# Entry
Amino acid sequence: MSRWWSCAVAGVIAVAAPSVASAQTFELFGPDSSRSRHESEQNFLIELRGGPWYPNTDSEFDGRATPFADMFGATNRLQLGVEFDWQFLRINPIGSIGLGVGAGYTSASAIAPLTQNPMPPAAGWERPSDGQETTLQVIPAYAVAVVRIDVLARRTVIPLVPYIKYGVGYAYWWITNGDTLSRRSLGLSPGASATDSDLGQAATGGSLGTHFAAGLMFRLDIFEPAVQRGWDLQMGVNHSYVFAEYVRSDIGSLGSRPQLRLGTETWNVGLAMEF
Amino acid sequence: MTTRVTSWQGALAGDARGPAVFPDDRAPRSEERPLLLARGMLRRQILVGLAVMGLSTPGLAQIFTNISRSGSPRTTDPGGVQGALNTTSPIGRRDCEGEEWTFTINYSANPGGMLTTSLQYFVGADAMACSMANARAPVVSGTPRCWPIRQTPSLTFTNPTTPLSYTIRIQSRYLIDPEGGNCETPGTTQGTSNTNYLSVLAFPPSDMNVIGTYPISYDVTPPDAPTDVIAGPGEGVAVVSWTYPGSLSTSTDGGTTTAAPPDLQGYWLLCDPPPNSSAPADGGVVDAAVLPGDDEEDGSDATCAASTLATVDVNDSAVFARYRCSDLIGATATRAVAQGLVNGRSYRIAVVAQDLAGNRSTVSAAGNCVTPVPITDFWESYRAAGGQARPGACAVRVGRVGGAGAWMGLALGVALWARRRRTR
# Structure
């Protein structure tokens, strides 16, 4: 991974150096000097994204148990989301720094097994051919700092914008038993004891952790520059992109209490617009 | 299936037979008869159009205004029709039992300059039936196609003065079966059409005295009963699947897609013994002591008493509500959850279909005997495996967030400071 990044950075410098050198000044935090005088001001970016999701819930058990895989299997789920960035700082001519917030939704469902006695056998539950569903539903959200390097797209013919994001992630989750929220109860829930503090409580909560992403955006303006200028003129959309992004979130890794781990290592693709 | 006519207006009805077309008053020759018949039919079509399609006749304003209906048990069905029923919705079997329609009659002229002594109410099998004296019951010969409403007390309004406006209330049963008020098998018009025409006639009688016609659609034919009911156990519930005879199923790689028949609103589940009951009303077996691991634990070999679901009167709201163990389920569903059951108690479950007019099918054959038992959901299995997380959206104390939060706060502060400098 480090070699790949080294090559990428070297490539960026090699391609961008002549352009940077030809720029009038290296103006930190100044206005966007490379912006055409016909181009509208650019401050924000919005992304619509989607990708596979499989949480690292079972990592809590260090191989002793795999309750998520046992219940929901090993198949990836689809996660959809949206992100909004405020590009509040311009580092000419390299790119921009911004703050981003994003949120999404994903879930995993399966037919729940009937409870056996004695409780709980960790494996070998008999699953009826048809029965009640249990569902884990998650709304993952994050707040990140975003650095986008758009000098290539602005100063050369290469329409690529690499970027990285880092910040905190939070996932609100809830688990259902049929149509209602799950609640553990003494005598019916496997392993429940009278000393458990969560007896009778609805299975809903939040988990906190870190969020990292790195990706590459492909600027679509090159295909129809005139159309893009028209969008900018009419709606203020400066640029539009497709992007692919590597995501690593460790939700459940921060905080003072044990939390349901809902982090994942995955990739996303999507559409983005700067305006 | 029902036919809906949504447009109406009062109209002066004429003689549908048409005027004589032969000045010498001779009888038409055989080759001229088709032409005569065609002209008569054309004139009749035009008059039907005037009556039904909303073309007003000079001298008569709208006869029916402020039409409403009330009292149908459908309007209190959980998950079903709420509030007032639309006046274009067909009258169903259950509407018929207790519903009443209200019409405001605006009567502003004496048709044809005749002195009107009373207004009377008829129901015709077609839009023009009541305009012809020889079609109004009782008829001297042939079959009547228009009948007086026999509702008690009589709806006849005597000695109207003009202009006037007054309200009449007619029970749905007499709009369907004007003479007998029979909801189940309306004898007079059933089978000829799914639309009747309420007609207001000004008397003395004449072929020119229909002052208003209003279409009433109805459908008292119940849908077919579902079949192949199968129930599986859940925690305090049972998962039920069934087949509807008229549904179209298409198998795809991703599953089965079922298209609902056009005249189907949905389904109800009925449970025996009734849900949320402390004791079975019909001798159903109660196994309150059944615990996970007992013989009946998997719900497959439980025993049930003979079900009485087949005797449930689906049109008796009180009885139906007692056995009902679901809200109204969508028409495309073939699987749903019966709610309000007790773990360890054995049940039989049946399905009732309901069409768009609120008609309910007979109760399907009851499915297998099923005994709800606890299930282990994901939260329970996670905690049973030793998972340490606890519920609570605020499970994290912000003061102990750690380095990432501090760095984020620092970055935000620097950013705002820098932006402030930039804008100076």
About this structure: Residues 2-22 of chain A form the longest helix (21 residues). The domain at 2-113+131-187+201-274 of chain A is CATH 2.40.160.20 (Porin).
